[in-house]
Structure formats: structure tokens, C-alpha cells
Amino acid sequence: MTNKLSDPNQPAPPESLLKLQRRFADHIRDPEGVAPLPDIEERRLAIYRRLFFNNIANLMAKNFPVLRRLCSDEDWHDLIRAFLRDHHAETPLFPQIGQEMVHFLSTLQARDKLPQPFFAELAHWEHVETCVRFDPADPCWIEPTPETAPDHARPVLNPTLRVAIYQWPVHRIGPRFLPTGPEDKQVILLAYRRRDDSVAFKEINPLTAHLIELMQAHPDLTGLDLMKRVAAQLPQVDAERLKTQGLTLLSGLLQSEVILAMVD
Q1: pTM for the structure as a whole
Q2: Is 238 helix (H, G, I), strand (E, B) or coil?
Q3: With 0-12 CB in 10 A as exposed, 13-18 as middle and 19+ as buried, what is 116?
């Protein structure tokens, strides 16, 4: 009798085990498209399938609560099943699994397969909120300086700040508001965590977005330096008026904790 351990035609045990694991996982992800392994009791397989699907479905519902409310139970089931069947995640980590759904919905958007045309952007916005909520950075790392004038001081941005740009008004979408089309202009949103750990959202205009971009790229610039740079980029706008509006804007960002401090 041939010794299977020395038979070159037999795969090594680790490879054989890996094939079994892959086929088992493929069946759990897509029970309708992949046949189950033989010799496994159907009752046991059903338990695995149910636990796996429900865990992912519940996790996604917590990561994307608005998206979940906009889906019927049947549509949500179909979306999760398609995600499990068709998307190959790059991470097994639960805190990062939401990003995988964002990627999956982006691929559906590219193929015009979304249940609603704004789903991909909505999911991205909800994921931004999750990232801000669990950002390890501490907004309390610097003492507030509400009395400091922004002219000759450097603004210190909130380290949890995220800026996101959309075509759809994702911050207003919900069961009571379903937009029929994208906005005429870009929707620019901020998300950040305040000192009391609450998550804040803010819609901003292009000037504010440009100022924040400058502050991120040049943290050494004072408020007045920032205004001079903006004025040089917008020669058609009155420089003195722009300076006044910009410094007022910086003070407002300081009060709302987008800027945490103005330091000399």
C-alpha cells in the first residue's frame, strides 16, 4: 500500500487543509453559489451560516445606521450577501471593516448598481463619522485660547478634523429626506471631535475649506499670513475685505473647536 505521506501525488497536509478551509469559507459567504463540504451535518452548517451573516449584518448596521434605515430588511439582506459574496476584504479587523463596505459600494457605483445613487457617498460620510469618533488623537492636548486675536497668532487645528467633499447632501439624508438629484455645487463638510468627546459636523464654504487646507499645509502661518496668501490667490477680491472676513472666520472656527487654540 502506498504511503500517503510520501506519495508525491498527494498534497501536503497544510495545503489540503487550506483548500478545505477555503471551500468552507466560500460556502459560508455564498451558500447558494458554492456547495457545502460533504460529511458536515446541515444543521451545523446552518448555524455557522447564520452566525457569520448576522454578525456582519449587525456590524454594518452599527457602522452605517442611516444607510440601514433607508433599506428594507430584504434590500439590506441582499446588500450584505452581495458584500460577502463579491468583495474581497483587505483586513480582518472589525474596526476597519466599515472601510471595506465603503470600497464595495464605490465599485457598485462605478457599475451603476447601487440601490440609490447616493449610497456610496452616504456610506463614506458615515464612515468619516466613525473615524472621527474613534480617532486616538486628543482634542484636549492644548489649552484653549479664546481671547487670543488671530492676526499674529498661529491657529492650531483640531487633530481629529476630517474634510470631505460630496455631490449629494449626505449630512441631511435620512428616511424623511431622500434627494432626487445631486447638488448644483459641491457639498463640503467637516467632522471632528470636541473636547467633551462629542462629534460635531459643519457644512462650510470653499473659502473656509481653502483656509483649512492652508492651515494643514502650513501650520507655522499666522492668521494674517494666511489672509495674505488667500488674497494673493484671489486678486479679484478686495484684500482688506478678505482680511476682515477671514479673521472673523478664524475666530468662528476657534469658538466651534475646529481650531483648538491660537498660539504666539
Answers
A1: 0.87
A2: coil
A3: middle
